[in-house]
Amino acid sequence: MKKDTLPTESSIKKLIMWYKVKELKSKNLKNTQISRQLGIHRMTVARYLSMSEAEFMESSSYNRYYRHKLDEYEDFVVGELRNEAGLSAAQIEDYLKALPGYDGSICSKTVYNFVQHLRKKHGLPKPEAETAMVVKNNFLKGRTYADAETLNRQALEWLARTGNGSLHHGLHRIPADLFEQERELLAPYTGHPTEPKEELRQYAVRKDNIELR
Predict the structure, then answer these.
(1) Which residue from 40, 61, 39 is spatially nearest to 50, judged by alpha carbons?
(2) DSSP code of 140?
(3) Which residues, in sequence order, are CB contacts of 139 under 8 Å at separation 6+?
(4) Cα(24)–Cα(11) distance, rounded to whole angstroms?
(5) N or C end of the chain: which has fewer CB within 10 A?
(6) Angle at 44 (CA atoms; ends 5, 71), nearest 5 degrees
(7) What are phi and psi of 31, to 5 degrees?
(8) How far apart, in Å, are the Cα atoms of 55 and each of 49, 86, 141?
(9) How far apart are CA 170 and CA 48, in angstroms?
């Protein structure tokens, strides 16, 4: 690192880790013990121990910079978060998927971590805790539209990108693909619809849709 270059937050954390490794070694701990205690790989421990402080600060271990997969979208994401502070990471991911050339293979967790990093970096407020109201919070919130037809089209596109087009964590399958496989097994409905009752029974339910008796 050049003398006139300020160290990054990442570099400072690595230097602190180097000091911790040296300190624990001075207490006669084995490399594997240091590895477990600090939560780093034992090869990293051995590499840190092999270098003096000056050698460490000149090494790639101290100066290495890992470019984030989503760095090129930082301005876009920050702009959306500043325009609508309540946007969730799931909404940001959906907006990214709608961009031309976006790599849709980036996992949701990576997008979530990137959004949280930008909130902290730019001092942006966090949204309220996400609830089970997926359509309301992850689709409608912060969205602008001209008419109902436009909104319906956007909703179908959103479903294709998210719920129906994303890997289901329970099934470990993509719902849209699974539906296409089952489509040929579906048969036309031949029954008769039930007429709605004039008076409907009232239910008391909690926010999680559990009926109270």
Answers:
(1) 61
(2) I
(3) 91, 94, 154, 155, 158
(4) 20
(5) C
(6) 50
(7) -60, -40
(8) 11, 46, 52
(9) 42
Estimate to the nearest angstrom the gap between the alpha carbon of 101 and the chain centroid: 19
Instruction: Give every CB contact of residue 23 below 8 A, 6+ residues apart in sequence.
Output: none
Q: What is the per-residue pLDDT across 63-84, written as a single tens digit (0 to 9) for each?
A: 665 567 788 888 888 888 888 7
Is residue 133 predicted with pLDDT exceeding 50?
no
What is the SS3 assignment for 204?
A: strand
Tokens of 67: 């470019």
Q: Which residues pair with 204 in a beta bridge?
A: 212
What are the Cα distances from residue 151, in Å, to 85, 96, 155, 159, 208? 21, 18, 6, 12, 26
Beta strand 204-205 pairing with 211-212: antiparallel
Which two structure tokens, joined as six digits, stand for 191?
């029954």
